[in-house]
Amino acid sequence: MVSDESGNGNGNEDEDEDEDEDEDDGDWKEENRNERGAYAVVDPTDLESVEDRPCDLRRISEAVGLEGVAINRFLAEPGEQLPLTYHYHERQEEAFAVLSGELAVETPDGEFRVPEGAVFTAEPEAPHRAYNPEDATAPVEVLAIGAPSVDGDAVPYDPDES
């Protein structure tokens, strides 16, 4: 629940709690916004996982209606990669903040290891493939941030053709 400066909730305290339990994930954002709708609190685990992805992906920016930035939470088990493919973006800058575990990122310049608490960044047109190595002993949880948020900006990259 969102609290304003007075410590009160989002103004919906009088609503029947049973109604809240019956709502699906599509309605969560209205319940977790302040009265003006300018702020939102979201727990990524409350969002639906995106299907047909190599790991667990939750689209935060889409859920709260952000248009200028893409924010996603990934949870990858050992051996899983975050994106669908090795790729680069034509216009988008990306940052991967490692919340837990250690992220591996393959690039044409070599592999980077990104420990918990660190951030890996990629400029536009910089190919990368983020993944959790098969020999990892734990899942890796990553908050991925990309700006601007653009659809169709990812370009597959084949390191053997470079």
UniProtKB/TrEMBL annotation:
Bias type Acidic residues, positions: 12-28
Cupin type-2 domain sequence ranges: 76-145
InterPro entries associated with the record: Cupin_2, RmlC-like_jellyroll, RmlC_Cupin_sf
A Pfam family it matches: Cupin_2
SUPFAM superfamilies noted in UniProt: RmlC-like cupins
Region (Disordered): 1-48
UniProt-recorded name of the protein: Cupin domain-containing protein
Organism the protein comes from: Natronobacterium haloterrestre (Halobiforma haloterrestris)
